[in-house]
Amino acid sequence: MKGNKIRKMHRYSAGYWVNMALLILMALACLLPLLNMLATSLSDKASVNAGEVLLIPHGLTFDAYKYVLEKQEMWRAMLVTVERVLLGVTLNVALCVLCAYPLSKTTHDFRSRTAYAWFFFFTILFSGGTVPWFFLISSFGMLDTIWALVIPGAVPVFSVVLLLNFFRQLPKELCEAAEIDGANEWIIMLRIYVPTSLPSIATITLFAFVYHWNSWFDGMLLMNQPENMPLQTYIQAILLQSNSDFYKYQGMAGYGAMNEKTFKAAQVIVSIIPVLIVYPFVQKFFTQGIVMGSVKE
Amino acid sequence: MVHCDVSLTADRAEESRPKAGRAMHRRLRRRKALSYHAMLLPGVVLTFIFCYIPMFGLTMAFQNFVPSKGLFGDQTWVGWQNLTFLFSLPEIGRIFRNTLVLAVSKNVIGIILPVIIAIMMSELRHTGIRKGVQTIVYLPHFLSWVIIATMMTDMLSPVDGAVNRLLGVFGIDPIYFLGDPDIFPLTMIVSDQWKEAGYGSIVYLAAIMGIDTTLYEAAKMDGANKMRQVWHVTLPGMRGIVMLMVMLAIGNVLNGGFDQVYNLLNNQVKETGEILDTFIYELAFGRTRNYSLSAMAGLFKSVVSFVLISTGYFLSYKFANYQLF
Prior knowledge:
The complex is a heterodimer of chains A (297) and B (325).
Chain A: H1 2-10, H2 14-41, H3 45-49, H4 63-70, H5 72-103, H6 113-125, H7 130-139, H8 147-150, H9 157-169, H10 172-180, H11 185-196, H12 198-214, H13 217-222, H14 231-240, H15 261-294
Helix pairs in contact in A: 2-15, 4-15, 5-9, 5-12, 5-14, 9-12, 9-15, 12-15, 14-15
Chain B: H1 2-14, H2 17-57, E1 63-64, E2 76-77, H3 81-88, H4 92-123, H5 127-138, H6 145-155, H7 162-169, H8 184-209, H9 213-221, H10 226-249, H11 258-264, H12 270-273, H13 276-285, H14 291-320
Helix pairs in contact in B: 3-14, 4-8, 4-10, 6-11, 8-10, 9-10, 10-14, 13-14
């Protein structure tokens, strides 16, 4: 047994090990910046400013986290983000299912399918751009409301496509059997298609979650009051526009202190933790989901 | 109408049972279609409001738009004036050049690198290590550019950034990754790959997994080494998906990457860093607040992109039989 294993090891050529080493290096290149941020956030200011921190914290301290988590504004921004994630993901996934199910039917079963498909497809080909979009939302009086972050992006077309391609691959017999039992289309969609498509639904849920968690541009454009900004917009404003008009906003005075490297790092870590928590659980699904959604028979 | 009657009587003459069945079938189909329309209604309404109305709103590109008069209000029409003004701006040439440089190099490298990564990963037989590598290299895709830009400004700082400190160990002078106009585009391209290359390899890896393994056996029998197997089996097996990705990338020619560039752009590197999207944004929401000019620049981008994206989808339909819907 042991001898067998050794012989097996020998089967790999030098090229194989070089290949593996390169891949591991690549993974490290992706991981190390995050570890550097983590180390910076856990170090004391003096060591960071002296440039002593690379991957291991110097002068271990949780001060940066304490400071970040004591900031009411941080929590408020986090709350806005949680709110938009909850509303937005629910709406995205629900609308995706509702659109993908009829579109997954053949033109024989649903004659208007082609028209609807073109209706959605055209939005990929042509867009009105940011300026009219902004004034439209503003004319609805949606500025500075959570709905401005949730409603305009409610139908993610590429997720609809991903889901409808998955629906198409489900055996037709499932549908026919249910029809004979007297189920209507709504029941077939909710009781048969949705439960059998959980990997795909997990994938589009992840995409919706990441989209809403990471969106900052709509918050910057559509939210005028700092207290309505979602987390990413808040971080963008504080961390990157350190010398801009932002501080002139009410209640934002004295935020210069947040530009300390350790605070920046702590904010980065806090803001990516939810993604890091969700990601491993759905990783298996999204590789599957992407492949199934993009590769067609 | 007459034709219809004739066919009905003909049916009745032959058999009555299938006719009743067909009528019921038709009724069932109509009821089904009704459910389908109802399901699509909310999505269609929202898409119409937030995607189609802004398209009509592009009429403001031909106006002297004043926000207080409203999006479809009584605005002053100025014809093509905004377009001629846009192309008379001294910076417009360099903005297009920057956009093309960034978009083309990001997209070209953004296909080559993921293909290489996918091939390398497919050769890895240690599944534990492969899964670990996959998990890590897909991760940056899920971080926002705000976060990555924050990390970059910190790590790439010429004074105390980790990267320049490391380079210093090898005796290399500090490099102004984000402040030197000659280096800034390269920084954009490399950091874009850092974020997206791993994730981009997913589709190619799937294509490789779909290659018939007997082809490799046959190649081995013919005495092909690993490199030759990759060249003669793996690459031809990926040709379809690579062609498809190339064709779909055509539509990105004017996409320099707003999220990334906006968060990293500064005055020192405007010369090589400013792209069409950041310019459009600045025109409307920066200091000038020239909404109509911005809308005109947006309209120009949309029209060119429309032609390019349509071409991409048309080619991929024609040659790869690819249909999005």
